[in-house]
Amino acid sequence: MKRVVNKLEKSKIEVLCQIEENEWKELQEKAFKALAKNVQIKGFRKGHVPEEMARKHVSQGEIINKAVNDAIQPAFTEVLQEEKIQPFAQPTVDVTKVSDTELELKFVIITRPEVSLGEYKGLGVEKATVEVSESEIDEAISRLVAQNASLNVVERPAKTGDTVVLDFVGTIDGKEFDGGKADNYSLELGSNSFVPGFEDQLVGVSAGETKDVVVTFPTQYVPELAGKEATFKCTVHEVKEKVLPEVNEDLIADLQIEGVTNVEQLRENQRNTLLANKDTQAKNAQLDAIVNKIVENSTIEIADEIIKDEVAAMKENMKKSIEQRGLTFEQYLQITGKNEEDLEKELSVDAKKNISAFLCLDKVASVEGITVTKEEIEQEFEKIAQQYSMPVEQVKEILGKDLNRFASELRSRKINEFIVTNNSK
């Protein structure tokens, strides 16, 4: 196969492939035989029609079309192997010449973008100092208290903060709608978990009462309900008051926090937890700032196709996440007031940022010789085994199924450690 290789901008390579005439003839003959097997003529079994008769039922256009499709993958594989090209994104292929005697294919292959590193050491990015105030510890303990609150039935009208157990049926223009009905539903008044105005109208109701709650759905909502007025017939069965436990040794025993047996130890535990969380956030912010500076200092051109591929992957992951929350992608767009084009523009910004960061850090690793050895992988397996009290062989069985990914994660960690060490104040 003759070919001409041309380097284009943004790490693209154009390869023109001229299929040899005899090879092209063979491909057409194979294509005809494959198509002939599907020819059906009365008096002959399928696949056993004589060649002369089959040719009358298979057009040259069909033969050419199949032969071209059959030629693409082998030609592309040969180009990659012979030219030692590693694609970085989905390539394109065009048929530039085709006839009974010739076939020319044009591949445009996008390779890894070239990175020209600027300054990537000595950038002096400081990690923020973290502190925890007494009021933050109070808030953390208040959250623990709230999580361990009990609900007691009361014989009085409901107040904000109470939980009401109710049945409700929603109607629009007198007709029920999907998702507007529930029995024995527990709703905390003031939690803002329902349509705005719904919970407020239940303040003051008592057990045994029935009340019509009228609300208007927001304009940014699922299309079938957006902006419409609905009436919910609500029947209240119980009103429950939230009772917060005292911060004492009984609560501490219920919390079952290792090493915590009194209030003083609880405060110290929460202080350390908050400090650890803030420190992690500060480290992540420092790492992001360093990476951003390295990218800013570097020169890199990314083909639009690479960004489009990344956006498509990000959008697909987003759709799966949205569906897991019980919404369709279309409903999500309606609720957020976005259209698909706007969303893709937003994602493309993140996609370019992510790809640029990955390529620059990978270049740093290449320049600095940052790799992961077999010994380091073994050490990491042993560390994980100790952490989770598991046999090393079991850890290897679980994580070793995708060893390349595991090694890649270790390498990324080493790269991050390197850039933080070499760029901190």
Structure commentary:
It is a single chain. With 425 residues, this protein is α+β, with helices and mostly antiparallel strands. It has helices at residues 21-36, 51-55, 60-83, 134-147, 249-255, 263-297, 304-324, 329-336, 340-368, 374-387, 392-399, 403-421, and strands spanning 2-7, 12-19, 92-98, 103-110, 115-116, 150-153, 163-172, 175-188, 210-216, 229-243, 299-300. Helix 6 (263-297) crosses helix 9 and helix 10 (374-387) crosses helix 11. The radius of gyration is 33 Å and the shape is extended. The two termini are 58 Å apart. 14% of the residues are buried. The model has no long low-confidence stretch (mean pLDDT 93).
Write the layout of secondary structure elements.
Elements: E1 2-7, E2 12-19, H1 21-36, H2 51-55, H3 60-83, E3 92-98, E4 103-110, E5 115-116, H4 134-147, E6 150-153, E7 163-172, E8 175-188, E9 210-216, E10 229-243, H5 249-255, H6 263-297, E11 299-300, H7 304-324, H8 329-336, H9 340-368, H10 374-387, H11 392-399, H12 403-421
Antiparallel strand pairs: 1-2, 2-4, 3-4, 5-11, 6-10, 7-8, 7-10, 9-10
Helix pairs in contact: 1-3, 4-6, 6-9, 7-9, 10-11
